[in-house]
Amino acid sequence: MNDIQGIDDVKLLVDAFYGKVRKDKILKDIFENVIQDRWPDHLEKMYKFWQTVLLEEHTYYGSPFLPHAKLPVEKEHFNRWLELFSKTIDAHFSGPRAEKAKWQGEKMAEMFHFKISYYSENNSKPLF
User: Fold this and answer.
1) Which of 22, 32, 91, 111 sits between 20 and 30 A of 15, alpha carbons compared?
2) pTM of the model
3) What secondary structure does DSSP assign to 20-78, as a single string?
């Protein structure tokens, strides 16, 4: 198996992962309720995000947390997201960038969960 090497690999990762998410009994409703019929736009944004993170080709601009700030998610959702993400990577790739993707996903899930919990528990919202 090869490592993640270019945008085609990023697209394969994103498409395979979100294909699983859209069928997952724990995650599908959360994603479908927010994204609705805008999946092509969402996938394009995710290609750019992971291209920026993994390939250091800066095509994503924005704040990844803000769209997630008010989602009805708990630790179990993040755990499932990470499980699917890691399994998707392991099914297609092996190497330093694949490991970086899993590490980055873990850090992002940890941070998002912490921030969402904080804002919910303190009845506050992030600065936009």
Assistant:
1) 111
2) 0.88
3) HHTT-TTTHHHHHHHHTT-HHHHHHHHHHHHHHHHH------S-SSGGGTT----HHHH
Q: Residue 19: what are its φ and ψ, rounded to 5°?
A: -60, -40
Using alpha carbons, list the distances in angstroms from residue 22 to 7, 46, 61, 108, 123. Answer: 22, 15, 25, 20, 30
Encode pLDDT of 80-115 as tens digits: 999 999 999 999 999 999 999 999 999 998 988 887
Q: What is the Cα–Cα distance from 73 to 58, expressed in whole angstroms?
A: 29
Q: In the chain, what are the domains?
A: 7-121 (1.10.490.10)
Residues 98 and 104: their CA atoms lie apart, in Å, by: 10
